[in-house]
Each structure stands twice: as structure tokens, then as C-alpha cells.
Amino acid sequence: MKHLENINNAINSSGLKKQFIAKKLDIKYDTLRRKLKGESDFTINEVLTLTKLLNINIMEVFKNE
After folding, report:
1. What does pTM read for this prediction?
2. Domains in the chain with CATH codes
3. Number of H helices and number of E strands within the chain?
4. Which H or E run includes 48?
């Protein structure tokens, strides 16, 4: 699941805290953690919110997929 690696890399590069990102996604931190591990799926709205928060293009999320 390359897209999860891409999201994790973008989060790490952004300097934003995962707690802040979870709040912006309107989910609990533990839910975000599970999604980043692939234990649960992101919704399309969550992916779109992530791209805005992280200032990345949606194509960057799914490259090499």
C-alpha cells in the first residue's frame, strides 16, 4: 500500500502533529493511527482534507500505486 507510505512521508515532512491532523479530519488519534497502518481505510473526504492540510496534490498520494 504505497499510498499509506506516501501519506506518512508527507505528514512527517509537514511538521504537523498527528493529533492536529486527526482533529482536522474529525477523527480520534487512534483512528488516524489505524488508518496510517492500513488497518482501516481513509474516506475520499479524508484524503482530500489531507491533501489540503499537507499541501500536496492528490496524485502524489497515489503515485507508484
Report:
1. 0.87
2. 2-62 (1.10.260.40)
3. 5, 0
4. helix 44-54
